[in-house]
């Protein structure tokens, strides 16, 4: 929950009195001129002990608050120097005391007009920007402090507060120096919020004078004197219960209560969300009893059982929690069985020219010196056995891939055992050793299956075409190829879709300004692509006859993985392109598409060199009979190898499943726990990591704190009452003062100096006219200013820039407070920084103040001169300075 802060916006005349009165101790620097030259962030914390800490003095506690004052002065001088320099770097002070509530105050430098010492020429602008950084925050309250003996309409504090808080919901006016006003005058109308009203009104306070401070008058005595002043003053007696530092504390406390109640609903929802998010994890810690001797045994059994369940779910795919981000171990093994393993078998597919050469050599070698009349069976068996042996490589590779996935699955399942490092390490070691043991037996069985196939060539198989049908099948294949090239319609059985998906044609897009993605549909006879996956607009259909696939090196400028289709007869694949380069987002997609193309009969390209032993290429110009024999055996080998491939593709996954995967599952369920008990001491296995112990304690503390916080919030809702915001007031006087230009508008000037001065109507009745002074009078014409004048060096030209008098005859001007006198106070009784008590949970508050009032005293003298000339035409005891 964002805390509400109190920002104190003082004038330069106001010294550091108010923050001290909040703590009821005198610990802030005092003096003449600019005292607060860096923002002071004062954090008050309720505590039994009473001491202070600075952020820049970590670990050091200050119990003597005179030392606190000296440290503030020293830290200010370290950054700003000793010659009145300023800085926006705050000083952070935290005070612990049983006499305070949790509260944050920020005391800001007072606004100064003229640079002194090391201050830059734009000192006013810099201080203003510094103040605006703090008071623009929506969660702060602004205490706009103004001395009673200055013109309230010229208050810089109210002006800045109005700029950032136009609705007046965060601004509280504070009037100080009420005891220093001239005898017979008071600020009653201002404190009653009748003149220059604020939405939250004004609170009057009385601070210690410099004489009181020099006399060591403590703050408690000052607050008693303040109470006595309001009770004894005839103008404030009826307001005594709404004046003084204690009442200001109540006002701020109520605003804090309102802020907390307004924030509580969202805060409660946030706490409840955090509680629900950790409740599942904390559930395992609630009944944790470290002193229980059976705890480790019970925990070990539960963790081993959970490990077995997790492993089986990842392999079998059962369970209600399905991973939607990546494939599980079982799904990856399925891809190995049905995509990767068939792909590896087809990838080692024999080269056609080399196969025919081997068949030709075998036939000639079997006939020897004789010329054979019949096709020899031994040539067929020799070629078939050689091709069957080649299946050992893909089969053993599939075993290795499955083993790797099993080990990865074990590591993922042991993540839940990470709280017990020794148990996790030992479990991985035992299961991995068992997997390695089963690896040898599984590979032996796989090799045995291959050897069984080599041991006997069953030419009587029902799917084997035999010698009689070999030539006939060869002609049928040739006929099918011719029909496919002609693009005739195929029977529905040949139009079964093998795969669909998005691919990018990369080489065609280069010519047209960029790669394009299409929706591809692969069948047993063709590869078609469409504009989108609705398959309404077909772009092209590519027959698969004589096509092969090969890899394309990945470009350093591209993140795509590319493979290419090409025609083995050196024909164009698509329009004028010899190659059709297709791109995927990952290598897994490339492998999957290759496996699908293999199912459709598109084999990978295997470049081969055809060099004979003498370095010269042989030209196999065979006689017609030998060519016919080679073609026959070629068809026989193709038929028998299709049978063997189908058998191997079916048996190898079954063998791996039985000897490897199922065996590992049974081992984990039945043997793992026993081997864990026998491998190491139980106490050693169940030693908890320091990180886990710390996390458990933190989670339990957080869970308990969240529950207590929700209970406290419920108590606050029932024990506190919020007050509605005061209704809006007429604040046009602040808006008018902000937009007043240096020269007076024409409509507000007097037409002639000889005409009597017409005062604007007020709430007290019409004011009599004031004649213009004669030439002997020393007072210049107040309401008439032809233009801005340079700053006056002394009091003789103090009337060069008097405040303009707006003319609003239709209503009483709210901008004229009824202070009886606005003269400067005597120096020996001048008050110090305003007392502002602030109570609540981290509420921030800046302090603003008015401009100097030197020329107002001279203005009052000028008015008295006019009164002496025509006493009957002027009202008595009118606060001229306020105009």
From TrEMBL:
Residues 746-767 have a biased composition (Low complexity). GO terms for cellular component: cytoplasm; microtubule; plasma membrane; presynapse. The keyword Hydrolase applies. It catalyses: GTP + H2O = GDP + phosphate + H(+). Keywords: Endocytosis, GTP-binding, Hydrolase, Microtubule, Motor protein, Nucleotide-binding. InterPro entries: DUF4548, Dynamin, Dynamin_GTPase, Dynamin_GTPase_CS, Dynamin_N, Dynamin_stalk, G_DYNAMIN_dom, GED. SMART domains: DYNc (SM00053), GED (SM00302), PH (SM00233). GO terms for biological process: receptor internalization; synaptic vesicle budding from presynaptic endocytic zone membrane. Its EC number is 3.6.5.5. The keyword Hydrolase applies. Residues 1-265 form the Dynamin-type G domain. Residues 604-624, 719-839 are annotated as: Disordered. Residues 630-721 form the GED domain. Belongs to the TRAFAC class dynamin-like GTPase superfamily. Dynamin/Fzo/YdjA family. Microtubule-associated force-producing protein involved in producing microtubule bundles and able to bind and hydrolyze GTP. Most probably involved in vesicular trafficking processes, in particular endocytosis. This is Dynamin-3. The gene is DNM3.
């Amino acid at each position: 929950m964002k805390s509400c802060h109190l920002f104190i916006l003082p004038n330069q005349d106001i010294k550091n009195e108010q923050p001290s009165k909040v703590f009821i101790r005198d610990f802030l620097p005092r003096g003449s001129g600019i005292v607060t030259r860096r923002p002071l962030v004062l954090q008050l914390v309720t505590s039994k002990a009473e001491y202070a800490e600075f952020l820049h003095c970590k670990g050091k506690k200050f119990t003597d608050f005179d030392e606190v004052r000296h440290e503030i002065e020293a830290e200010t001088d370290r950054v700003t120097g000793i010659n009145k320099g300023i800085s926006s770097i705050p000083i952070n002070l935290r005070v612990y005391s049983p006499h305070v509530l949790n509260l944050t105050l920020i005391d800001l430098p007072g606004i100064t007009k003229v640079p002194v010492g090391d201050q830059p020429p734009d000192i006013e602008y810099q201080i203003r920007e510094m103040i605006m950084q703090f008071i623009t925050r929506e969660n702060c309250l602004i205490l706009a402090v103004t001395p009673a003996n200055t013109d309230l309409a010229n208050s810089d504090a109210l002006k800045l507060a109005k700029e950032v808080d136009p609705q007046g919901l965060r601004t509280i006016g504070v009037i100080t120096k009420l005891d220093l006003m001239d005898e017979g005058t008071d600020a009653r109308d201002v404190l009653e919020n009748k003149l220059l009203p604020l939405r939250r009104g004004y609170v009057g306070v009385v601070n210690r004078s410099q004489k009181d401070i020099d006399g060591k008058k403590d703050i408690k005595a000052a607050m008693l004197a303040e109470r006595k002043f309001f009770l004894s003053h005839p103008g404030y007696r009826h307001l005594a219960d709404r004046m003084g530092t204690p009442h200001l504390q109540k006002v701020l406390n109520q605003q804090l209560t309102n802020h907390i109640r307004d924030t509580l609903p969202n805060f409660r929802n946030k706490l409840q969300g955090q509680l629900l998010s950790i409740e599942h994890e904390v559930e395992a810690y609630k009944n944790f009893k470290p002193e229980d001797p059976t705890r480790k045994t019970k925990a070990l059994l539960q963790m081993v059982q959970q490990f077995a369940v997790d492993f089986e779910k990842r392999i079998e795919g059962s369970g209600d929690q399905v991973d939607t981000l990546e494939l599980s171990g079982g799904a990856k093994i399925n891809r190995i069985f049905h995509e990767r393993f068939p792909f590896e078998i087809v990838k080692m597919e024999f080269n056609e020219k080399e196969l025919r050469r081997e068949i030709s050599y075998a036939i000639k070698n079997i006939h020897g010196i004789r010329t054979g009349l019949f096709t020899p069976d031994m040539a067929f068996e020799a070629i078939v056995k050689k091709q069957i042996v080649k299946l050992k490589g893909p089969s053993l590779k599939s075993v290795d891939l499955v083993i790797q996935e099993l080990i990865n699955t074990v590591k993922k399942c042991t993540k839940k055992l990470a709280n017990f490092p020794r148990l996790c390490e030992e479990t991985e070691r035992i299961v991995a050793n068992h997997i390695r043991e089963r690896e040898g037996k599984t590979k032996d069985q796989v090799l045995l299956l291959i050897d069984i196939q080599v041991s006997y060539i069953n030419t009587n198989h029902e799917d084997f075409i035999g010698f009689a049908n070999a030539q006939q099948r060869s002609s049928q294949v040739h006929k099918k190829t011719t029909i496919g090239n002609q693009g005739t319609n195929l029977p529905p059985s040949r139009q079964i879709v093998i795969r669909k998906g998005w691919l990018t044609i990369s080489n065609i897009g280069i010519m047209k300004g960029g790669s394009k993605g299409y929706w591809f549909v692969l069948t047993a006879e063709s590869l078609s692509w469409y504009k989108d996956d609705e398959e309404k607009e077909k772009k092209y259909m590519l027959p698969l006859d004589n096509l092969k696939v090969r890899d394309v090196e990945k470009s350093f400028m591209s993140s795509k993985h590319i493979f290419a289709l090409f025609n083995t007869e050196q024909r164009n694949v698509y329009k004028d392109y010899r190659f059709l380069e297709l791109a995927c987002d990952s290598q897994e997609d490339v492998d999957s598409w290759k496996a699908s193309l293999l199912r459709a009969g598109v084999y990978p390209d295997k470049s081969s060199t055809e060099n004979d032993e003498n370095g010269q290429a042989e030209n196999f110009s065979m006689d017609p009979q030998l060519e016919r024999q080679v073609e026959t055996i070629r068809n026989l080998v193709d038929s028998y190898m299709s049978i063997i491939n189908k058998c191997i593709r079916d048996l190898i996954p079954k063998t791996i499943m039985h000897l490897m995967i199922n065996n590992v599952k049974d081992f984990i369920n039945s043997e793992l726990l026993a081997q864990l008990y026998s491998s190491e001491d139980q106490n050693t296995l169940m030693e908890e990591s320091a990180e886990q112990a710390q996390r458990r304690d933190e989670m339990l503390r957080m869970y308990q704190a969240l529950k207590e916080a929700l209970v406290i919030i419920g108590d606050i809702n029932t024990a506190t009452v919020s007050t509605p915001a005061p209704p809006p007031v007429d604040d046009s006087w602040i808006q008018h003062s902000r937009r007043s230009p240096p020269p007076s508008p024409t409509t507000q000037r007097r037409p002639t100096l000889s005409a009597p001065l017409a005062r604007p109507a007020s709430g007290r009745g019409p004011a009599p006219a004031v004649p213009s002074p004669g030439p002997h009078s020393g007072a210049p014409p107040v309401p008439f200013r032809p233009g801005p004048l340079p700053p006056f060096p002394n009091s003789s030209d103090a009337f060069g820039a008097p405040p303009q008098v707006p003319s609003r005859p239709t209503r009483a001007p709210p901008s004229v407070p009824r202070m009886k006198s606005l003269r400067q106070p005597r120096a020996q009784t001048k008050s110090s920084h305003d007392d502002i008590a602030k109570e609540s949970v981290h509420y921030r508050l800046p302090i603003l103040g008015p401009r100097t009032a030197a020329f107002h005293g001279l203005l009052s003298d000028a008015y008295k001169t006019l009164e002496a000339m025509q006493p009957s035409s002027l009202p008595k005891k009118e606060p001229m300075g306020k105009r």
